[in-house]
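W.,

You were right to be curious about this one. When I first looked at the sequence I had no strong expectations either way, so I just let the prediction run and decided to look at it fresh. Below is the sequence, 163 residues in total, followed by the output.
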Amino acid sequence: MSTQTLSAVAVHVVGQYHEAGKTLVGAWRTGARRLLDGAASRYGQMQKVTEFLANRLDIDTGRVVSVLDRMAEAGTQGIEAVAGRAARAESPIATSLVSTFSAIHLPIANVHAQIADKIAEGARKLETRVAGAKEAAAEQAPEAKGAAVAVAKTARRARRTAA
């Protein structure tokens, strides 16, 4: 159990959170874009406003992704720098300390890695769900919408009759 193993786990965690962040931003962009498209289709006179908001959405989410990229890169470089300095330690006391530190924290780091994996997996599922909701709404037939209204009316009538 060396500092390289601990640093590899830490870099993995940073990478997973980075991926999850970018995935969530993408899902948010997709959902917001769908909301804007729906508003534009309902209110034709707001076309300029929705185009402006869609443009701002793309610019702002691009900036957020850029910040996430820079943060992940800085975190990874910091982890690698600390691991490199720890690996250069020549003192027997320092080597013993680093080995002990690594042995104690490696199980904790592995748990963090598992949590990060689950978060990234959940973010991917959310993105798929948001993207899939758009397709599911497009596939829903007008007859199905009409059938739902008919069922609701029938239920209301039955309640009135029973009362």
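Here's what jumped out at me. The chain has one domain: 3-162. And, maybe more interesting for your project: The helical segments are 3-42, 47-87, 92-139, 142-162.

Coffee later to discuss?

I.
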